[in-house]
Amino acid sequence: MKSFSIAPERLKQLNDRPLREDGTCLVYWMQESMRAYENPALEYAVRWANDLGKPCVVAFTLIDDFPEANLRHYRFLLEGLKEVADRLAERDIPLCMLHGPRSERITRFAKDQDACAVVTDRAYLRHERKWRSEAADQLEVPLVQVESNVVVPVETASNKREYAARTIRKKIMQRVDDFSGETTETTPGQDAKALELESDLDFGSVDELLDQLKIDRSVPVSPDFTGGTAEARRRLTAFLRSDLEGYGDGRLDPADDATSHLSPYLHFGHISPCEILRKVRNSSAPQSDREAYVEELVVRRELAHNFVYYTPDDYDSLNALPDWAKETMEKHADDPRPNHFTREQLEKGETDDEAWNASMKEMRERGFLPNYLRMYWGKQIIRWTNTYDYAHKTTLYLNNKYFMDGRDANSFTNVLWLFGLHDRAWTEREVFGKLRMLSKGGLERKFDVEAYLKRVSELDE
Fold first, then answer.
1. Residues 6+ apart with CB under 8 A from 245
2. What are the helix (H) ranges across 269-315?
3. What's the N-to-C CA distance of the chain in angstroms?
4. In this structure, are residues 64 and 213 in contact, taking their beta carbons and an 8 Å threshold?
5. Where are the stretches annotated Disordered (predicted)?
6. 3-state SS class at 357
7. pLDDT reported for residue 461
8. Closest Cα to residue 39, out of 238, 275, 267?
9. Please, is 150 exposed, middle or buried when counting C-beta atoms within 10 Å of its C-beta (0-12, 13-18, 19+)?
10. Which of 12, 135, 186, 272 gets the highest tally of CB atoms within 10 A of its CB?
């Protein structure tokens, strides 16, 4: 298998089908890397197509019932995809919108187009891996996967599930320079206009495409986030100019909201983590602030990918926790809870904690919450529900329903972190046992709660 100047560690052929050299085109099945810039999977497909003397065609398979996704997520996704379609058109690369079961639809499309081979980007969650495995079995041509959404490929960073950030940090950081270079754009060598291509869905506009889908519309679109690489780059530039300096401490104050707000764009693959990394490293911010951001972007984020990849059956279950966490929860399972709130009360923000209610409001309305408040928000759910299992399920439900960056490796990992994953045992307390806790008093000592409440109250204006 040729690498076409893409790091070989990013490449993996998922089946052993022979190349169809007399086919009409090469297909890039875009799913996780929804961008036309700095996309190793796209550029690999274009370079392979050029090597074969064939045009490159991009296909995206859209389903109405993506697990836990709703209008908020679909609109953001399609805003980014519309930008991709426009940018690909400038490069004379067609984007075909396919509708229906993903593995079946891409298999039929590849067969109808008499494709030489199919390239796809890599995913890590159980259902996404299943779709690729099914497609690999059904396709009659090679399916090559290109890892495009982490800096250091998961299996290159580590060949096992890591215990914590401290056990993976050195392994990742010593390889970062090998994989963070720019992926340069390649000009397609063949025109695809002669191909008879058909899309299942019309993509005249985002609204028109949304109208064709039968999706969950219970959660409104976020007024603060617009999808696409251009918007991601705008936010990155603004962050580098104003908020990276002082990020080491400033990111802990949700009243200032001094973060990059790039996690939704990373989740949907609208921007490359390698691009972010290079620009942060090349900024004029103090080294300590740059290192603090790289820790979040590379070490912590890719620790999450390590976890879900090497824990495919249990990444959404308390079964994945370390033994000490399971033992302390078993010991404290019957501890009296100071207050009890139902899932419905929590979702509406109807607790006796004004800061927590404001956090839930920000989640519902913006689809975002600064990391320190995410910790406080999640820890109180443990305090207010009858069982740890129900607390975990409730936290995941709310996280994945409202957050723009929900339903990904970070979501499942960070929610389990609340219950001891990638953490250590702390001083034993009621309800939490040896789990790390954060009380309201601790929150108030960390930052100006009144300033945060004021900021959230202005979301109504």
1. 284, 285, 286, 289
2. 273-281, 287-294, 301-310
3. 56
4. yes
5. 329-349
6. helix
7. 44
8. 275
9. buried
10. 272
The helix (H) or strand (E) run that includes residue 60 is strand 56-62
Domains of the chain: which residue ranges?
1-148, 150-182+228-310, 318-460
**CATH number attached to the domain at 1-148:** 3.40.50.620
Q: Under a CB-based contact definition with an 8 Å cutoff, are residues 139 and 102 in contact?
A: no
- 8 Å CB contact between 62 and 201: yes
Q: Which residues of the chain have pLDDT under 70?
A: 250, 252, 460-461
The DSSP H or E segment spanning 30 is: strand 25-30
The structure's pTM equals 0.97
In whole angstroms, what is the distance from residue 406 CA to residue 219 CA? 13
User: How many Å apart are CA 444 and CA 389, to the nearest integer?
Assistant: 28
**CATH architecture entry for 318-460:** Orthogonal Bundle (1.10)
Taking residue 332's Cβ as centre, other Cβ atoms within 10 Å add up to 17
CA distance 66 to 268: 13
Residue 174: Cβ within 10 Å count: 11
| Distance, CA of 129 to CA of 456 (rounded, Å) | 38
Under DSSP, the state recorded for 405 is: T
- Please choose, from the candidates 199, 61, 191, the residue with its C-alpha nearest in 3D space to the C-alpha of residue 121: 61
Half-sphere exposure of 187 (CA within 13 A, CB side): 1
Rg (CA), the chain: 23
What CATH number belongs to 150-182+228-310?
A: 1.25.40.80
Contact assessment for residue 383 and residue 377, using Cβ atoms and an 8 Å cutoff: no
Residue 1: its pLDDT value, please? 84
Please state, in angstroms and rounded to a whole number, the distance separating the CA atoms of residues 309 and 318.
Answer: 16
The phi and psi torsions of 294 (rounded to 5 degrees) equal -65, -35
